[in-house]
Amino acid sequence: MTVSQPSAVEIGLMSGRAGYVLRANDRGAFTVASPTLYPHMWSWDAGFVALGIATVSVPRALNELRSLLSGQWATGMIPHILFHEPSDYFPGPERWRTQVAAARPAGVLTSGICQPPIHVIALSRILHDARRKGGADQELAEEFVRETFDSWLAWHQYLATARDPYSYGLVEIHHGWESGMDDSPRWDSPYANVHPQPDMPPFVRADLAHVADPSQRPSDAEYARYLWLVEQKVRARYDDTAYRATGDFVVGDVLVSALLAAASDLLADMGEELGIGGGTAGGVEQSRAIARRFRTGVLRSVSPQTGLARDLDLRTGQWLDVESAAGFAPLLCGGDEALTRRQRDLLLGPRWCGHSRLRWPVVPSVSPASPAFREQTYWRGPQWPVLNWLMAWALNRSGEPEAANQLRLAGLSQLIDCDFAEYYQPVTGETLGSRDQSWTAAIALDFLA
Ligand code: 9WN
Fold first, then answer.
1. Structure pTM?
2. Which residues sit with their C-beta closer than 6 Å to ligand 1?
3. With the CA atoms of 152, 155, 159 and 163 taken in that order, what torsion angle do they form, in degrees rounded to the nearest 10?
């Protein structure tokens, strides 16, 4: 399917409405992930949100990242949620009970797990655009990189050490939420070994009140497992070594690893350009080493049969062969040109974006040709605009601007109704989950810039 360029009127309407959504979700120093379903700051959402806001205001975008860093733990971990204000979101701070953790930050309540390290990718893009604009924006962005370089490095080092203690080159996650793709079929096999115990405190879900149809969200049985893992993290006092010894879910995540590799290279690039991170601590070299280790780990995970990267269940030692969009991790971190070309063709071909049943030729979370594909269940098939943005970004970076533009135009066509939904039914094009989702509006702005 060929998709045409949106008209000038459509572009004007879309950028106006996307800007409006981000302003409406702005709470001053941070942006809520969505108005009702997610009334807090989420870690990887904040990265996407920052790059969208940067198209309108570089200072406000940098503040978004600064605000996120206010939640950084002493270990370097950037938590997946910052609870700046009270709300009815579940699980809230009383369930996370991070007061048991010595490393928690002062002054802001947070969750106790993390999310994919997209932030430096966003920052590098913001810096690049600010330099194009020049003047005060450029000065502010460069100053911000100098000011925060060590914090980003600490975040990456946390993932590279506490979450890869044996140097496999794959970042270990302790909860499906850490992947950002909560109920993806990637995690079905490891979750089968997660067994909530009767002494888990009871809970009532709040999420279902905010969606039209519960089948768009994870099931109750899945939620019980999610909450049990939270309980296991609390009981381990959020100490990664203690959790590793006792926790049910320990998996090497290829998408997180690829993002870490890409982000570490970009951090090293920024450090070199600005003459920082070269001192005694050798931040630039440390970043390069992290990039190399995780790129190697991702490339090693690729299945010769499917050409897709695979997560590794570190409890059972099994590779997880699932046709999810995370399989395109090597496209994000590069390192093997033949594989990049193979993945480009696969991504645009009939098992993925070119599948004949798709309403828009946009990356689905799971291949429609896979038996695991579900049309309207969360990360089991629907299209998430941020994933499409990531793939377009990766194609551009691998020297494939035409393929990247194809995804960009298809992504814009999908968003033309300006609902900025959380995710989309891939066959009908229907909007699913939350409306006015901040990161969806943000990537529309970036695609239009
Ligand atoms: C749990 C905020 C977040 C995204 C995740 C998405 C969803 C939360 C939830 O919403 O997860 O973290 O309650 O379902 O899966 O990727 O960051 O938009």
1. 0.98
2. 33, 38, 42, 44-45, 80, 177, 180, 182, 207
3. 170
Pick the catalytic residue: 64, 323, 422, 436?
422
Question: CA gyration radius for the chain?
Answer: 20
410 belongs to a structural domain = yes
Domain of 350 in residue numbering reads as: 8-448
CA 133 to chain centre: 27
Taking only the tens place, the pLDDT of each residue in 74-110 is: 999 999 999 999 999 999 999 999 999 999 999 999 9
Work out how many domains the chain is built from and give that number.
1
Known catalytic membership, residue 182 = yes
**Over the stretch 187-223, which tens digit does the pLDDT of each residue have?**
999 999 999 999 999 999 998 988 888 888 999 999 9
DSSP per-residue letters across 123-146: HHHHHHHHHHH-HHHHHHHHHHHH
Q: Tell me if ipTM is over 0.95.
A: yes
Residue 3 lies in a domain: no
* 144 domain-assigned: yes
DSSP string, 416-437: TT----SEE-TTT--EES-SS-
Closest CA to 314 of 243, 263, 224: 243
Residue 368 lies in a domain: yes
Residues 6+ apart with CB under 8 A from 229: 174, 175, 176, 194, 247, 248, 249
Q: Whose CA is nearest to atom 16 of ligand 1?
A: 180
First-residue to last-residue Cα distance in the chain? 24
**Active-site residue, 285 included:** no
Concatenating the DSSP letter of every residue in 255-299 gives HHHHHHHHHHHHHHHHHHHHT-S-STT-HHHHHHHHHHHHHHHHH
For residue 180, the CA-to-ligand 1 centroid distance in Å is 6
Instruction: Give the model confidence (pLDDT) of 308-360 as tens digits.
Output: 999 999 999 999 999 999 999 999 999 999 999 999 999 999 999 999 999 99
Domain containing 137 — which CATH number?
A: 1.50.10.10
Length of the chain: 449
- Under the phi-then-psi rule, with left for phi > 0, alpha for psi from -120 to 50, and beta for the rest, what region is 335? left
Atom 5 of ligand 1, nearest CA residue:
180
